[in-house]
Inverse folding.
């Protein structure tokens, strides 16, 4: 368990930063809430009476919360949050979850992060919080523009499927097959169900014990 | 292999039967409520599809006495028996396993359930069980485990299927690591209704307005939210997964057309939300299933479904909506990690009732921190919601720490547990230290259940008849007496059941 106690807050929006037509970063006041990189919060527009869970994108030391949000076509909450003006008050609760780095101070432990799309959010928080972390991040995207804030990572590999460019042409699962993982590696997977299933099987097949595989379903 | 999936009748000295299975808080009831254990039913179907012989053995739902159940099981001569347990009946299961092992020494005994899943060593020490499943994805684990055992006589030392504790010898066992549910849920088959004798569960279920009713193969395994600290669907070992909408719609259509089902309940921890929920409703409407005389029901959360989605649910003939209203003060909701505010409740309920649904509230009292003021808020809010018709039915229970949920662990860490005897964890009495006398919580429950007999509530139900909805007439005249019977049962449990002796 995380060790953090959940609280309900009403933070104000600081700004919305558009990344692509379908994706943006929402920055809100943190109001002193403690959390661990990899955890999530719920966010909703006030009086809308509906909220959603979003993984925190910012680092533990930042005095604000960033969340990376995919603007769901015909969605209810994600378009409403994107329309929020600075100063608008939101409903927020959290932090939640146990998808966190167990021993971030141990730089000898190798980590492999595997994400698709906005499933990269927990790894952004982890990389920002633990700059000395020994990791490689595989990010599956369709287009190059979806390599959100790639400059923020020390060891980032974009696996691109929709364009003939990028660090690796193909899916993250293709990359994993072609670049076998050392069984000592601690692996974290976050993304769509199909990727999770395939990547999990590949890594198990390469000898990574199930106890070293951490999975966060993304939806 | 010959595999029995078995639920023995567990009867206490008052003649009450324990309701065990699938994230249920065990309670003892005389009036039966038979709930299909969906995941085990999927496991049975899957194993049968793989060529194994299956004995679906729910002694409760099949109306057997313990002795009859026991005789029948031994006579069937299983090679493997799969049992499911939870904290309040762990001691019963340990003794049962001892007995079965003596009677069928070559039979492989497998224990599933959240308690042993989170403390497999304890069960290995307490009884001669062969395997403890360390996963609640029983179907996915068994479909690998059973074929492996069938093909490998040395399975005790060679089996590497994830998510198991395997006994190698009397005093030695090993773990095969954690099991992560990452495979597509669509791989697990729809429940074979005939295999699990679906009609055993079709009538005696207090939540059905129309019968025969049934539980759908759940669209979501575990819970989309998965953070409430008192719930078993919470922990790093659980990864929620979803079934495809079309596959579920196909099942609904089959249940209505082939089996004549008139109410379908999806017991997923929390049902679809947002776009998926709307697509499901649109699918129901497109297939015309909303006009076939069948109601649909779900579990959901406050602050999860928006008004447009709820409107579509109403159009698609959804009726029963189960919502956890675990407290009516924000401090408790925060502590429980509920992820919504008290102020969300009223408006959400207004949407459900506006579009013709019958919200059912599951209320809890007796948290180790709950003050008289917080308790009074729960009673006042629940009574008001019921009087205003914003909720139609309710269930009030004592929050009981069990199965090593975060709440259970917190109670242990804070030293507030009053007993370590698992038999006491059956929700018939408070087992934690509280800031006010226990009797106050029992009284609060009686006050909330007392709503059912209050003139304001009865008048409200009569007023609903003016809406012209068949479901309102059915609610009053066919469902009402069953609801009252359940109220009497709950109140009885709070007066007599505190003196229960442990189950035999």
């Amino acid at each position: 368990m995380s060790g953090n106690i959940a609280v309900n807050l009403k933070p104000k929006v600081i700004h919305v930063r558009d990344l692509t037509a379908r994706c943006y970063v929402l920055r809100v006041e943190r109001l002193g809430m403690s959390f661990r990189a990899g955890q999530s919060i719920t966010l909703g527009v006030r009086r809308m009476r509906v909220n959603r869970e979003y993984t925190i994108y910012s680092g533990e030391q930042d005095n604000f919360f960033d969340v990376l949000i995919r603007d769901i076509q015909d969605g209810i909450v994600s378009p409403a949050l994107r329309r929020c003006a600075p100063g608008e008050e939101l409903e927020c609760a959290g932090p939640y979850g146990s998808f966190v780095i167990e021993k971030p101070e141990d730089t000898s432990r190798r980590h492999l992060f595997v994400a698709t799309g906005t499933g990269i959010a927990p790894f952004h928080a982890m990389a920002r919080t633990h700059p000395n972390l020994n990791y490689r991040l595989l990010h599956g995207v369709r287009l190059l523009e979806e390599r959100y804030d790639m400059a923020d990572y020390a060891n980032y590999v974009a696996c691109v499927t929709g364009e003939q460019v990028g660090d690796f042409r193909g899916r993250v699962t293709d990359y994993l097959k072609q670049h076998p993982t050392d069984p000592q590696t601690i692996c974290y997977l976050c993304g769509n169900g199909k990727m999770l299933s395939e990547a999990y099987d590949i890594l198990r097949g390469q000898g990574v014990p199930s106890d070293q595989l951490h999975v966060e379903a993304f939806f | 292999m010959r595999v029995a999936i078995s639920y023995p009748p567990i009867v206490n000295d008052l003649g009450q039967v324990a309701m065990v299975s699938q994230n249920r808080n065990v309670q003892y009831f005389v009036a039966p409520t038979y709930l299909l254990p969906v995941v085990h039913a999927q496991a049975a179907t899957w194993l049968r599809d793989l060529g194994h012989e299956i004995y679906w053995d729910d002694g409760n739902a099949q109306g057997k006495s313990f002795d009859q159940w026991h005789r029948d099981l031994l006579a069937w001569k299983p090679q493997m028996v799969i049992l499911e347990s939870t904290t309040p009946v762990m001691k019963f299961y340990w003794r049962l396993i001892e007995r079965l092992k003596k009677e069928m020494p070559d039979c492989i005994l497998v224990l599933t359930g959240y308690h042993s899943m989170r403390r497999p060593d304890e069960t290995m020490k307490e009884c001669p069980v062969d395997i403890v499943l360390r996963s609640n994805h029983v179907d996915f684990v068994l479909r690998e485990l059973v074929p492996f055992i069938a093909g490998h006589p040395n399975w005790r030392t060679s089996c590497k299927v994830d998510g198991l504790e395997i006994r190698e010898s009397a005093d030695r066992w090993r773990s095969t690591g954690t099991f992560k549910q990452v495979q597509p849920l669509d791989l697990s088959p729809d429940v074979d209704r005939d295999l699990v004798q679906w009609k055993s569960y079709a009538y005696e279920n207090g939540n059905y307005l129309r019968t025969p009713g049934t539980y759908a193969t759940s669209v979501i395994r575990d819970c989309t939210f998965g953070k409430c600290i008192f719930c078993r669907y919470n922990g790093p070992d659980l990864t929620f997964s979803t079934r495809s909408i079309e596959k579920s719609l196909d099942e609904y259509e089959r249940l209505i057309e082939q089996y004549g089902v008139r109410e379908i309940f999806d017991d997923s921890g929390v049902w679809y939300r947002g776009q998926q929920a709307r697509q499901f409703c649109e699918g129901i409407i497109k297939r015309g299933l909303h006009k076939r005389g069948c109601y649909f029901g779900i579990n959901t959360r406050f602050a999860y479904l928006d008004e447009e989605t709820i409107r579509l649910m109403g159009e698609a003939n959804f009726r029963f909506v189960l919502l956890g209203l675990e407290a009516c003060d924000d401090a408790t909701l925060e502590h429980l990690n509920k992820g919504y505010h008290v102020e969300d409740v009223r408006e959400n309920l207004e949407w459900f009732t506006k579009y013709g649904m019958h919200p059912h509230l599951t209320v809890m009292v007796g948290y180790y921190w709950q003050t008289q003021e917080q308790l009074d808020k729960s009673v006042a809010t629940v009574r008001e919601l019921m009087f205003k018709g914003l909720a139609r039915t309710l269930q009030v229970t004592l929050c009981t720490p069990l199965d090593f949920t975060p709440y259970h662990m917190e109670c242990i860490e804070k030293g507030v547990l009053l007993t370590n005897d698992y038999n006491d964890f059956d929700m018939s009495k408070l087992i934690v230290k509280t800031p006010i006398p226990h009797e106050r919580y029992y009284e609060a429950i009686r006050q909330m259940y007392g709503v059912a007999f209050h003139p304001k509530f009865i008048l409200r139900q009569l007023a609903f008849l003016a809406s012209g909805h068949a479901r309102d007439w059915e609610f009053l005249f066919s469902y009402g007496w069953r609801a009252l019977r359940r109220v009497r049962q709950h109140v009885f449990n709070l007066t007599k059941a505190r003196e229960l002796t442990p189950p035999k």
